[in-house]
Amino acid sequence: MASKLFSAAAEAAGVAGANDDPLARVLAPPADETAEARAARLERAVEAQRVSHEIDEDIQESKKAFERRKKAIKILLLGQAESGKSTTLKNFQLAFSPQHFRSERAAWRTIIQLNLIRSVKRLLEVLDEEWDSELTAPVKSALKSAPSSPTASSSSPRAARSRSGSRSGSPSRTRPPQSIALPPSALANPAAGSSRAHAIAHPHASTSAASSSHHPAPSFLPPSSAPRHASHPSTSTSVRFSTTPLTDTHRRLRGRLRVLLPLEAALARALLPPDDAVTGPAGDVCVRAGSAWKGAASVLASSGLAVNGVNLPNGKGKEHVDDPTRTLAACKDDVVTLWEDPVVRAVLKRRGVRLQDMPGFFLNDTARIATLNYQPTDDDIVRARLRTLGVEEHRFTMESGGLPGSEWYIYDVGGSRSNRPHWIPFFDDVQAIIFLAPLAFNLMLEEDPRVNRVEDSISLWREICGNGLLAKTTLILFLNKMDILQATLAAGIRVAKYVPSYGDQPNDIQHVTKYFRDKFRGYHKRLSPHTRPFYVHETSVVDTRSTAAILVGVREGILRAHLQSVNVI
Ligand SMILES: Nc1nc2c(ncn2[C@@H]2O[C@H](COP(=O)(O)OP(=O)(O)OP(=O)(O)O)[C@@H](O)[C@H]2O)c(=O)[nH]1
Ligand SMILES: [Mg+2]
Known about the structure:
Elements: H1 2-14, H2 22-27, H3 35-71, E1 73-78, H4 85-96, H5 98-103, H6 105-135, E2 138-139, H7 157-164, E3 237-238, H8 248-257, H9 261-271, E4 277-279, E5 285-288, H10 293-302, E6 310-311, E7 318-319, H11 324-340, H12 342-350, H13 366-369, H14 378-383, E8 387-389, E9 391-397, E10 407-413, E11 432-436, H15 453-466, E12 474-479, H16 482-490, H17 495-498, H18 509-527, E13 535-538, H19 544-565
Parallel strand pairs: 1-10, 1-11, 5-8, 11-12, 12-13
Antiparallel strand pairs: 2-3, 4-5, 6-7, 9-10
Helix pairs in contact: 1-3, 4-19, 6-7, 6-9, 6-10, 6-11, 8-11, 15-18
This protein binds guanosine-5'-triphosphate (GTP) and magnesium ion (MG).
Guanosine-5'-triphosphate (GTP) binds at residues 79, 81-87, 359-360, 383, 385, 387-388, 414-416, 480-481, 483-484, 540-542.
């Protein structure tokens, strides 16, 4: 259309005065036009025609893309933060578009290094908390005449964090238990909070009730156990004495590993322009949807960085960043020694910290990852943690299976509460929702540590089931992280302690899964605007093999429903 206008103008310019077209008259060259002016005018007309062609082609392309998208199958991945949405997406890519998945391998190397550094950082924090708390440990009357130690009279920020119980391998993990408070028809009423793992008895715990009001509560006690006022200040005091099994060797290791700490921020800066790199609630690096982090990370991973500097791929010019790969490799043995040390493990256990439950946990693989020529395996990529912000669109062309060559769009969303309003615009244009709900009955939300994770998942599920915009959408529920549920139950953690209505049913995986599955099924049945089938799968999406088998079934089911809805079958 645009090109027709310009060609008409160019033609008119060439044959000015040859007809009565008013446009041609307006565009006609002046009668006394020189040869040079004519040449310049014709050149401009040709350029205008070229631009016009380009615009026409763009419009055609957009129309085709719009048509393609309209016909394509669209899936929305929903669920709370850390439920496994992005991991499910990676499984889709690995199963149905493996070439594309593997083309991003280099980008994930940097993220996995970041994940490893983050775990080391957390490990060092726990050791610091341990050393801090030994300085404030109270002792009883044997020392009652001793003056208070100046080191014990105030609390360090680390010790304060430790007391608050808000930090652990998985930040929500060490919260004192809170029972799930679901709507009346869901689970039972909340029960009073009680102590759990992190309140492991300390050798001096029994003395705490008498500790002085001038001294902070000992960090090994949950906040609820800490006395508000001292009843007998004269019977106890705090002095500096060693209660920790950690030794000078541990201090030396910690000292050497501190070199890793600045790398996290430096890598994040190198990966992304400031507007795209964001720090998550747990202080982790995350990126906004649509940012070019994969390109930047690939460049960073393959740039063969010099020891002391790197040209940043984000176009911000030169900045000096220690080569993370070399620094990590230099620290490899120290990280392995510290992580495998039985005393360190005992301290972690006593403090109720399970680093292995942290998203993006790679400490067990340090010897393999902290090397100069590390290349991530498929499993590493699937297990890597990068928080999603906003909504990411991923387009697939199916390489095999039903309807090969068909186009699929998968939308991966950020699951934390502040991200949820961004989901709604996608509701009226998707055929299926895969809803991920880990049965983390003993964990709290990171963004609101008062809210139990299963409670949050169930109330989200209720909203999805009852939403009118989604009345015709296929809902597929993944009860995810079954491997973690299995380990939690095997560790003797009882569901009834957090979900009183669970009662005295057996605390095994079959009964627990059935209990929660029935809750989800009940809401699906009761709240769906029209009757629709309830699809549910028990998944551990970090297990790529079993997930691939599940996804083949899911894909065929969605395809069939889609074809039925457009009356093809
Ligand atoms: N053990 C285990 N870990 C899992 C499972 N599913 C996901 N994870 C891990 O949990 C972490 C969080 O998974 P993600 O897929 O990033 O979670 P998400 O739902 O995309 O989270 P947001 O982007 O914050 O909304 C990652 O480190 C995953 O490797 C699972 O079934 N078992
Ligand atoms: Mg995600």
